[in-house]
Amino acid sequence: MRLGKQIQSAHSGISLRASLTLLLGLLFFAYAVVSFVTPVQAAPVFQADKPANDFCLACHQEDGLDFKLGKDTIAATINPTQFGNSVHSDQSIMCVDCHTDISDYPHPKVKSKNARAFSFTLFVVCKQCHEDQFLKVQDSVHQRAIDGGNTNAAICTDCHNPHTQGRLTGKTSGELTPSARIHIPETCSKCHSGIYDAYKTSVHGNALTQENNTDVPTCIDCHGVHNIQKPTTVSFRNSTPFLCAKCHTDPAIMDKYGITTNVLNSYVADFHGTTVKLFEEEFPGQPTNKPVCTDCHGVHNISKVDNPKTGIALRENLLVKCQRCHPDATIDFPSAWMSHYEPSPEHYPIVYAVNLFYKFFIPAVLGGMIFFVLTDIFRRIVNRIKGVKHV
Ligand code: HEC
Ligand code: HEC
Ligand code: HEC
Ligand code: HEC
Ligand code: HEC
Ligand code: HEC
Ligand code: HEC
Ligand code: HEC
Ligand code: HEC
Q: Residue 40 C-alpha to ligand 6 middle, in angstroms?
């Protein structure tokens, strides 16, 4: 801190330590210039070649190096070890590949009025090398919030620190690595802390953050990453059953946890689901008044169904969900509904028995009649051939 304050007033009066740092930096730079530049090119000394990272780091590794923009203090210390471990350093991207306007010290004057404005002028450099992501972001809730004047919405550098960002995807696989996956919700939590807190205690979030389980959804499985769309729209709501079904109908994932994969089918077969499905086919994008998965299970706070406090296998907990749309429902109301179960001797034995009864009764009655008609026709034909006369 102390040193930072001193250096920050570099133009008025430089402290001894800062001067030494400056000198060290200049020496480094002179060395770099001497070793890379031929005498003919040497005239404007600092433009001759790209200054090496070591030149920049000679000053920037100094603890407590910071500067002021308006009321904001910005830390200008770059940890050389962390930078060395970053994907950009690994790919030999140099400081000046991104800081293209800086080649020596003092640096050009920063015109931004505060820290946020400073970030907005610098982050656009990402476009140079990551155009795909940059273009996707143009069609996102965050960009639309920014266009609407909300500069708190996320830009590249809020989610990726350019100096410390590690690899996110496997070099050859191109797939998100397990460790990157585990840390995604923390990235979003910087600004969506309320949702993160709910998620962390949910069946999904708890498995991810406490057990490093990567089978469960993180924020981006449900929302996407660079082109996140508004989740409170009708079409997002109507598509949630399929969002959940991606994993919940996949036995390769669900068998490990002993969770049934019949939840989508049983939901669609149920009167609520049938209506949502038919409705969506007839009037895509129209609001439906029937429940989707999240109306009963919650969104960011989904619990195990048998959780003794919050689980919806408990009738009291489920009733609250039903009452939103069936305000007169009483404690017995949820039993009018078969949940995700197909009737079986364990679940809904009476419905099961009635179904079973009809399964035999109807074929037996119809079969009997057909048998009777066929034998009667056979008898008549035989009689005709034999010339037997009816009396
Ligand atoms: C002699 C020490 C020194 C050297 C060498 C140095 N810096 Fe700085 N840098 C500072 C100080 C001190 C600040 C704080 C603001 C100021 O005084 O300009 C700063 C601020 C910055 C900033 C933020 C504010 C701004 O001006 O944009 C960036 C970015 C930066 N340096 C990048 C670099 C890069 C890249 C290099 C290598 C080419 C480098 N610095 C070399 C001392 C140095
Ligand atoms: C991949 C591009 C990239 C590389 C490589 C890079 N920077 Fe930066 N740097 C940025 C961006 C973007 C910002 C603005 C960050 C923000 O909004 O806070 C920044 C900000 C800074 C700042 C201002 C303080 C801060 O963190 O906001 C300093 C100082 C700085 N960089 C120095 C360096 C030095 C020294 C190196 C090399 C060791 C370096 N940078 C390498 C992109 C880069
Ligand atoms: C000068 C080119 C350059 C600039 C500018 C640049 N990057 Fe990179 N970045 C790279 C390269 C090269 C890689 C490694 C890509 C690879 O191997 O797939 C990389 C990797 C990444 C990764 C990890 C990708 C992965 O698949 O694991 C992220 C995240 C990233 N950059 C973000 C940024 C952000 C944010 C900015 C702007 C502050 C930025 N980069 C600016 C060149 C650049
Ligand atoms: C709201 C947070 C957020 C913002 C804003 C954001 N990213 Fe990402 N980015 C992520 C996450 C999380 C991942 C990892 C997910 C993945 O790779 O599927 C990622 C992955 C990446 C990757 C790895 C390759 C890929 O596409 O998966 C690159 C490169 C990248 N981002 C660059 C950028 C750039 C450049 C910007 C700005 C234009 C940006 N990101 C804005 C969160 C963000
Ligand atoms: C730097 C802060 C910041 C970060 C980091 C961030 N967001 Fe946001 N996000 C915002 C702001 C601000 C809004 C706009 C809120 C509004 O318009 O009401 C927003 C809006 C959203 C919305 C739309 C909300 C709505 O009601 O329409 C979603 C979804 C969202 N963010 C998801 C994410 C996810 C997922 C991540 C992590 C990958 C993330 N955000 C990271 C700041 C951030
Ligand atoms: C299992 C899927 C799923 C996961 C995981 C998930 N979300 Fe959501 N999210 C949704 C759904 C569905 C909605 C719409 C809820 C509604 O209709 O009110 C939503 C709504 C939102 C909203 C806007 C509405 C609000 O409540 O403010 C934001 C912001 C958001 N999510 C951020 C996040 C973040 C951050 C994470 C990770 C910590 C996350 N989500 C994880 C499915 C998910
Ligand atoms: C009308 C309310 C309601 C809707 C809609 C609903 N569920 Fe359920 N779900 C329940 C109840 C209640 C249980 C607990 C069943 C029990 O044990 O009685 C449950 C159980 C579950 C279970 C645990 C199954 C097991 O093997 O332990 C999963 C997973 C599940 N639901 C996912 C979903 C998905 C995915 C959807 C949307 C396709 C959905 N649910 C729609 C109420 C609902
Ligand atoms: C990326 C895959 C994935 C997605 C998407 C997903 N889930 Fe899950 N879900 C899981 C896994 C894996 C578990 C088991 C976690 C555990 O028990 O540790 C689980 C557990 C559950 C449980 C607890 C079942 C029990 O044991 O009682 C419920 C309820 C549930 N999910 C509902 C939903 C709903 C509703 C959605 C959509 C909004 C959804 N899930 C989306 C993977 C997913
Ligand atoms: C998001 C609103 C919503 C929620 C939540 C909801 N329902 Fe319904 N439910 C409806 C609508 C609308 C109908 C009328 C369906 C039709 O006529 O096609 C309906 C119909 C029914 C019916 C058929 C008999 C009747 O009254 O028309 C039963 C039984 C039922 N719901 C039980 C439940 C149970 C049990 C729960 C809680 C687990 C529940 N519902 C939660 C909206 C909802």
A: 61
The predicted-structure confidence for 4-31, as pLDDT tens digits, reads as follows: 434 343 343 344 345 535 444 454 444 4
- Tell me the ligand closest to 291's alpha carbon: 9
CB 339 within 8 A of CB 351: no
**Domain residue ranges in the chain:** 1-167, 350-391
Would you state the structure tokens that stand for residue 341, as one six-digit string?
A: 């179960």
Rounded distance between C-alpha atoms, residue 237 and residue 220, angstroms: 16
Q: Give this prediction's pTM.
A: 0.87
Q: What are 154-182's pLDDT values in tens digits? A: 999 999 999 999 999 999 999 999 999 99
> From CA 105, how far away is CA 388, in angstroms rounded?
123
Ligand 6 in reach of 185 Cβ (< 6 A)? yes
Task: Using the atom order of ligand 5, give the atom closest to the CA of residue 154.
Answer: 1
Cα of 196 vs centre of ligand 7, distance in Å, is 23
Residue 355 contacts residue 343 (beta carbons within 8 Å): yes
Q: What pLDDT was estimated at residue 265?
A: 80
Tell me, in angstroms, the distance from the centre of ligand 6 to residue 186's CA: 14
Q: Which ligand is nearest to the CA of 237?
A: 6
| Ligand 3 atom nearest to CA at 90 | 14
pLDDT level of residue 349 (50, 70, 90 thresholds): low
Which residue's alpha carbon is nearest to atom 6 within ligand 8? Answer: 244
Q: How far is residue 83's CA from residue 91's CA, in Å, rounded to a whole number?
A: 11
